[in-house]
Fold each of these.
Amino acid sequence: MTDEKKANAPKVKKKKGPLRLEVILPSILILALIYGYFFFFFDSHLRKAGEYALTQVHGAEVNIGNIQTSFLNASLVIQKIQITDKNQPERDLFRIGEVRFKTLWDGLLRAKVAIEEASIKNIQALVPRDRPGRVLPPPPPDGKPGLIAKAEKEIVDQTKAKLQDNFLGDILAVVNGVDVKDQLKSLEGDLKASLRIKELDAELKKKKEEWDQRLKSLPESDYFKSLETRFKALNWNEKDPIKFANNLQTANNLVKEAKSKVEEIDKAQKDLRGDLGNYGGSIKDLEGFIQQDIKDLQKRFNIPSIDPKSISQQFFMKQIEERLVGTRKYYEVAKKYMPPKFKGEKTKEPEETLVPRKRGEGKNFTFPITKGYPKFWLKKAFISSEVSSSEYSGNITGEVLDVTSHPQYLKRPTKINISGDFPQKAIYGLDLKSVIDFTTDTPKQTVDLKLASFPIGKIVLSESSDAGLAMSPSKAALQVNAQLTEGQIMMDTKSQYNEVKYDIQAKEKFVSDLLTNIFTGIPTVTLNAKISGAWSDLKININSNLGEELARGFGKQLQAKIDEAKQRIREEIDKQIGQEKQKLQEQIKGLSGDISKSLGVRKSEVDKVIKDLEDGIKKEGNGLIKKDDMKKLEEEGKKLLKGLGL
Amino acid sequence: MSLLLKQLFGFIKLLNSETGHNQIAAGIACGFILGMTPIFSLQSLVVFLLIFLFRIQAGAAFLSAFFFAFIAWVFDPIFHQFGSWFLTQSSLQGVLTSMYNMPLVPLTRFNNSVVMGAGVVAILCFPLVFFLSRLLILKYRKAVVERIKNTKFWKALQATSIYKWYYSYENLYG
């Protein structure tokens, strides 16, 4: 073959194999670029994305100092997290030195996040920032109260109902003497007892009319006379036995008729006794209405109860309210992130909308986890912090155990144990133990918090124009044991305020002196509260030595004045409703007398008629029907039967 | 968009060429699986890798994925019902539980009713789509391409200098 021929021959393309070998080099290049990106840029991009996302969630600037990720170790280290205080942007709400996570590759390959060990180091609170943090504008209000606002309102409404405004002022008003007489004059229309008497009066009038009608329907003397007349009209000299027998039958019918009237009268008497019994009961019940009126008026005239429990409740309800609101807020927020209550709990089906549906929504089925890990499992996280130059730093140690998305599978409740001190802030003996147990079908969360000593500011116990009382303890101790179970709370809180100084303000000097004398001897104040029940119906029991001391301090003198005021109310009520009550009693008595008398008369009349009729029948029957007549009657009867062929 | 257009032109060129009917059919079949899968999951990644490593026509794959995604969207409720039925079969609970606890397998999101429904349909229909598309390509080439090539217009076009220039360019730069 010549060169020319070779050149003109068609080029035969080399057949390519099934693999794209030409992509090897570009692939290596791409992989190198990806590696380069993750090596040089990924951590800083993740840090920026994390800062942005956390800022949006928190509503104020969140800074992250550094993030280090490791693909091979499946680990993540986040350093210097600063969370700006929304209310005071010039400081951080929290500052965390370092957070370290290390997940298991075995779990990641199963699409599960299993963190074998994590650590949260160097936690500080309320640390001043180098520059004020950015606070995002709050979202526009939608006009509806939020879930937390609703929950807070539910608590506040309940505590408010138990609080008496100006409690101390009211006590002092009683010390000065209360005159309820004038105020009571115009109250007649508002008294529950008075209203009840009027109701009873109206009922009684109606009943009297009914009884009058009923009496009319009962037989009277004319009727009894007619019975006697009808009896006398019978011919008892009748010789014809059939006619005589008819007369006898008629006489017996008359007796029956009279007896039926006796039954009617007996029933009426019984009913009357029942009605009178009811009215007697109503008169007795009036005492209950009077007692209620006394209570209402006591409240209306601000006459306080000075038993230790009431005083403690009035002084410390606000403190307890704050703790309850805090717990409730925690509960509402935490509820969103808690695992489902029950196995197989059904979620509400989404409503159909006109928006075209997305692809691939479907439904995710879960299967029993036989080996491996739950979807998320933080086995153990250490919390530690040491005192540094910052006055907000502290010696904190703690651990968080078994945070998981499937506690029922793990059968391990989440436990949080934290203890430590903040010496520079004079906070000592912090001991927090919390168990969040979703391993059973009845979720239970318990919190045991102890604070051995901490500084506390001024606590206002009572504030009014007449008198004010506040206490400033130098330090306090706190113990809270709370248990939350399906909307039910059981909280036992004990506080002790030491080295207490009192701030007493009163318009009148003798009041100021009185209060100063009482409180001087109370350097330590204890506050014990037990709260139980559903959030919507809380039973709050507050006790404090302050209540006891105050009750003792005010002494018998104040109690006597309160009793006197109560007695005056009682007397005034009695005076106002006394006449009505007496009138009502007389009416009932009248009703009883008139109707009873009338019924009694009729009963005796009808009894007499029946007796007369029965005596007449006996007399006439025995006198006229003799043995010969009976024989004659028998024979005539037989003849009659024969004549009929029988 | 330009990538999709490039793939589309490549697909038309390949459809009208003399070779590569298996590559095109495999591309359409892989695109069918991609289109049926509602979300990005492990199986999608595997299909992408196959397209990348083997001589599967990527244009055909992406075009058919685009096309089948619309069809799958219509049939989603049926896939959901079928997937739910499949995932709740008592006889399969053992296998599915084992799969749920295996490494990597949960990344396929097989426990989602739509993924499972569409996935089963896609795998069962994959050979059918492959052979059907192969058959249609061959028929198209015989019935349409050959007929056009025998027309006077095509022969006249082949004789033009523009065509010769394009042909030389194609031979040189592919």
Amino acid sequence: MSAVLVLNGVRKSFGELEVLRGIDLELAEHEVVCLIGASGSGKSTLLRCVNLLEPIDAGHIVVNGREVTANGVDANSVRRGIGIVFQAFNLFPHMSVLANVSLGPRKVLGLARAQAEQEATALLERIGLADKRDEYPDRLSGGQQQRVAIVRALAMKPDLMLLDEVTSALDPELVGEVLAVIRELAEEGMTMLIATHEMSFARDVANRVCFLDAGVILEQGSPEQIFKAPQEPRTKQFLQRIVEAGRL
Amino acid sequence: MKIFCIAEAIILVTALGVAVLRGLPGPVFFPVRLFAVVYADFFRGIPTILLIYLLGFGIPALQLSGVPTSELFWGTVALVLVYTAYVSEVYRAGIESVHPSQNAAARSLGLSHGQSLRYVVVPQAVRRVIPPLLNDFIGLQKDTALVGVLGVIEAFRQTQIDQAATFNFTPGIVAAVLFLLITIPLTRLTDWLIGRDRRRLLAAAGAPV
């Protein structure tokens, strides 16, 4: 198995605040890694750095054997191979569902409109939203919007998917339909790095769980190991609070 | 009316260009951004009538070869320069009002800065600024009267000629009515567009209309 993603001593500050303080992480092909940790521990920033939406201050990021943080790397070509799904969906409100999903393939991959739309429709069918293809995003529920956002990222045929708290903005009854789509992706062998607050989901779907605390990966291991027998006091404390809140 | 139509078409394009230049990222484009800022500051700071005067009388007086000497031409150029500055600021406000997450989503698909602007940011920005754009065009429509100082016979100039001949202010009233006939429908159209946008926003937010 080759590494799809390698992070080496990644550091990132916003002004005085150092959000990432030396992250080392490796994702093998078909691996699903969940990042857990309190809000502000750096999960989202880490994902944004991998997608080059935020420049890093130190360290290296290697995607499919290519160092993407080197000078002179075309960020657009790197992002082409990495799908990211955001907490707030970020669908384009002035475009139909179909246009949202086919924009990237048409303009970045250079597909003809007919082919891009055909592929987009096929993807929408898979998540049961083909009948919504001509609707605008504000006519869809949050769960439907987020599923469209996942499909929009998939339409670029990425090697790696980054999911940033994709269920945090959803009503509780809509979380399930989004997690089901992600679970299906995991079963199909998509390599994924997932920041999440859904601990039971992380336990089910992840090959590996990383606990982020104050900008470092404090502890990582299999889901059983992290959730049943955490070693670090900070991890225990965090999971304790989750259990008390009734979320695990 | 002809001045207005030609100027408006040019302004819509050039102003968007200036607004986009001002938003170019990275240190490489600093001189370009600086140009856009200086341009907007300069031409918004000069009284329109002064610029019309300077260009309309000044440039033909230089007697440069190959340069048009028509007052109508230079009057229109002056209006275009001034209103491009105003309208570029309207566009810029629109572009900045589109949430950065929209750009992030577009860039994350691999779209370039230009593609993101073209397909995602500007279409949303333009929809938002249509009411203020129309507002500026009502202003432009009225300011075409200023070109009259160059001796171009637009509506206001014509009334002065008629008044001087007849000592009668009726032509002035006619000219005023002519201007209102154009500006009032434009104003109502602006109001209607603002109202429609508001209804859409409320509907999307699930609030009663």
